[in-house]
Fold this protein.
Amino acid sequence: MAYLGTPAATADIIRKYGFNFQKKFGQNFLVDANILNKIVDSADIQKDDCIIEIGPGIGTLTQYLAERAGQVAAVEIDKNLIPILEETLSGYKNVTVINEDILKTDINKLAEERNQGKPVKVIANLPYYITTSIIMGLFESHVPLSSITVMVQKEVADRMQSGPGSKDYGVLSLAVQYYARPEILMNVSPSCFMPKPKVGSAVIRLVKYKELPVKVENERKLFAIIRAAFNQRRKTLANALANASYALEDEKGTVKITRQQVCDALDQMGLSQTIRGEALTLQQFASLCDIF
Ligand code: SAM
């Protein structure tokens, strides 16, 4: 089977099977061999790696992955793509296609069955409508992972990589950076896809930390505080947290924090009482959480 990463080869296979693109599944297939090569070059794929691909589409990126990795497990929701994948991947004995919704797939079980629980690499041109759920799902369910290399909407990549002081810095930045070191590898133009998406794209690599960079007594409380701080990001942190006790739920129930408690904690940390949440680093949020 010839490589699919061109507009002509993609159009041919789509026509042959009478396939209709489904907007609701975020179907924008890569048709640029240069970008495909760059993705696999930058994803640090070894001959004995087990790759999980989310949304193989017609199998374009899957072919490139199968050439380099030990094995590829590709999870695709759209049953209309399965017969196409049978043809386009017929030459690769190291690929398994699983017709499932990735949000309902037990990826821990998949990693256990395919790779005896050793760390897998996730590489994908993601369906953009569920980017955050997929990435946070992988981290929060503690799937054994070494890295995630994915195409996402450019704005989302910027949010994942941002730090304090940037307008893009927020809950997603902190949630991702709690688990992994993000690095945007390249921006990708809409013209590299069929059909062309309305937004710009970027490939980002998230290299999972072997040890978490911050340690807190209560992870859920840390993220409840972060969410509350950014829910009202133009307010001072003291006001945002005091106003938001409803949002500060952890497993013990609602956490009530008074304005005075936040001010005292900020004093203890040597920070201004008028500081906004968007100025705090992950480390500072962790210290704040432990003081409460
Ligand atoms: N990998 C292909 C490529 O690069 O050309 C296709 C990428 S396309 C952006 C996203 C793919 O994810 C589509 O094939 C779509 O059907 C699939 N998809 C969408 N939602 C999914 C879900 N919940 N679970 C698994 N696959 C999904």
Q: What stands out?
A: The chain has a mean pLDDT of 93. Residues 219-291 form a domain with the Helicase, Ruva Protein; domain 3 fold (CATH 1.10.8.100). The chain has two domains: 7-208, 219-291.
